[in-house]
Every structure is written in C-alpha cells, then in structure tokens.
Predict the 3D structure of the following.
Amino acid sequence: MTDIRLPLGGLKFSVRVAILCVRGDRLLANTAENLGFWFLPGGALSTDEDVVTCAAREWEEETGTRAGPLRLVGVLENFFGPTHKRQHEIGFYFRMEAPPELPDGAFTVLDNADVICEWVLVSEIATRPVYPLAVAEFLKAAPGEVRHLVERG
C-alpha cells in the first residue's frame, strides 16, 4: 500500500484521516517542540484502504490502543501552504470517545518520538490553535450529522 500523497499541477494532493478523540471537555491533539500549533492524530490514507480502516490503523500506530467506535463528523477540503509549497488535502474526520487506558497527561506518539499528544480544552481550541480550524465545527456535529467544509489558507 502507498500513501495517497501526489504532486499534481504544482501542488501536493493528499487524502487524510484524523480522529477527534474527546474526553469530557478536552480534545487530544498532537504537537512538537517549538511547533507553535496543534494538530489531530491521524495520517494519510493508503491505496486500497477505506477511511475507517485507515483511522483505526493510524490511531493504533500512534497510541498503541485500539480505536473505539468511530463516527464520521466531517469532510474537509483544505487548501493551504505558501505558493511554492501549496497543498490540497481532502480530509475525513472521525469523532471517538477516549479509551480509558489513555493517560490523562501528555505522552509521546509511538511512531514518532518528536510528536507529543496533549489534552487541549475544547473551549481553547480557537486560541491554541488546533489545525485545521474546522475542528471546532466538527466537534459540534450531532449524532448522524456529517459536516462538509472548505478551508482556504
């Protein structure tokens, strides 16, 4: 299997899945030293892989725990990056309640020692910031609702 990340027409096109892991009033987000922003656990969809399988695989690779029930809450068309490194990403966003075995404090991502998982208060995700900005809208999705958004940065 190959990650779906392709150079196309002067930009990089990719398909990504991400998990909005929630524990009470907190969202699990990744960051790295001196990065200055947070992003969601997840990764690139591989060829011949469906998005639910990808989300569960990425979750297990990063945390070492099995994914709980995953509920699709959003699809994002995301255009970002400087002119010389422009990206077009299609993202599938799943909400999941935090497994009880996840630590309450920060911990290192298993497949990348430079990345740390931290709990961010949902009320602070607009000021932290957590990318993509659509995260705030996706967290508001009611059961059975899937939101479609476009972000141009």
